[in-house]
Amino acid sequence: MDRIAIRGGRPLCGSIPIGGAKNAALPLMAAALLSDEQLTLTNVPWLADIASMAALLAQHGLAVDLPAPETAAQARVLRLGGAIQNTTAPYDIVRKMRASILVLGPILARCGEARVSLPGGCAIGTRPVDLHLKGLEAMGASVSIEGGYIHARSEGRLRGASIVSPAVSVGATENLMMAASLADGHTTLINAAREPEISDLAECLNAMGGRIRGHGSERIEIEGVQRLSGTTHHIIPDRIETGTYAIATAIAGGDVMLEGGRIEHLGAFATALSRAGVDIFAENGGIRVRRNGHRVRGADIMTEPYPGFPTDLQAQFMALMATAEGAAMITETIFENRFMHVPELARMGADIVVHNASAIVRGVKNLSGAPVMATDLRASVSLVLAGLAAGGETIVNRVYHLDRGYERVEAKLAACGADIERLAG
Ligand code: EPZ
């Protein structure tokens, strides 16, 4: 298994290209199931999760035209098309990537029935899908759980409905928006998620002939249509990758241009970073991040649905606060078990005490390198960030977690002066 070695203490200077958003690309790929015509996605990030979703769609019968590896970095184009041949999403694929649940709505809307393995929990929480299923039932589907699989059926087309979600769910909003695009009648999603990835999906569906309004707000209106066509869609930049490298610059010190990053997608994250004493501002079509000389200051955060502080940047921000002057309270309100990075950061000398959903971080002047490992994508990258500031060498194990969501993380950081390398395992 590959590992990453970091020898800390060097500031970052230069520029980092921000790739297409993983969490936009995955639902956009699932949207290819809504039409037999070709969907072309550009600005595709080449990540393990993208390959997993491509394999899932191929086993459903779609023609998936992945570019050759040697041209992929330049092309970043993914072409998907063809008819659905198989309406079952098998356990061995779904268990590896929870976003597989996003094929449920499209396949049910197109074929009148779908069998999708229950994703099961993961390291950060039980991750139920009840909001997805209740929404589809509101649209006339009958849903049962048989042998660990969701079995959804509808007599004829799904029907438009008014659906109030008791909790904000990104995935449920995406699944229901895709299903409603082909339903008979009007659907209103109330208490919908507002993430930029939701809006990106809605824009693509509208380009395919969909009729969606209100995306980006908590109330989304969808007029169902008989059929959708193909289109070409450019994926938005990844705001979580953007935030991760902003924190890398803050924790290591330096001055970095995040090429293509969009500050309007960062929400409360940019405010929190400014409160911590980091300069972050839009410049030349990207985002400039600077921290020279002074230490960062402790800044309290609470994760919330967009535009609140993103849960996917909580672990990274905690690594930064571990080096801050003063203390910070970090409260995780989205997932029930997203502090697994705490014991690993503590092994590097961080002073963190967890009480239920909150962690008190008391900054220390120096972290010290150590062999560490993590159990999920964002926890893994928080350890790389801590390694940038730590004295000595940090070895991050289980790098496959990182490869799910970060393209060439070691190359992007090394290009700005970090002493970091991947050790083939
Ligand atoms: C998406 O997951 C992202 N994944 C996650 O990013 C992200 O952390 C999460 O949204 C929150 O922003 C993708 O977009 C592929 P939710 P999702 O449904 O859709 C509960 C990463 O690191 N819930 O918004 O699964 C759920 O348990 C990943 O890139 C229900 O109770 O998240 C959680 O507590 C990690 N019932 C909360 O809602 C449901 O039916 C938010 O989950 C669905 C969710």
Structural commentary:
Helices cover 31% and strands 25% of the residues. With 425 residues, the chain is of the alpha/beta class. Strand 18, helix 11 and strand 19 form a beta-alpha-beta unit. Helix 1 runs parallel beside helix 2 and helix 5 packs parallel to helix 7.
Counting DSSP H or I runs of 4 or more residues, the number of helices is 15
- Sheet/helix structural class: alpha/beta
How do the strands line up in the largest sheet?
22-23-1-24
Quick check: average pLDDT?
A: 96
Rg: 21 Å
Low-confidence stretches: none
Proportion of residues in extended strands = 15-25%
**Based on DSSP secondary structure assignment, what is the total number of beta strands?**
24
Distance between the termini: 4 Å
Helical content (DSSP H or I, runs of 4+): 25-40%
Overall shape: it is: globular
Ligand list: ligand EPZ
- Characterize the biggest β-sheet: 4 strands, mixed
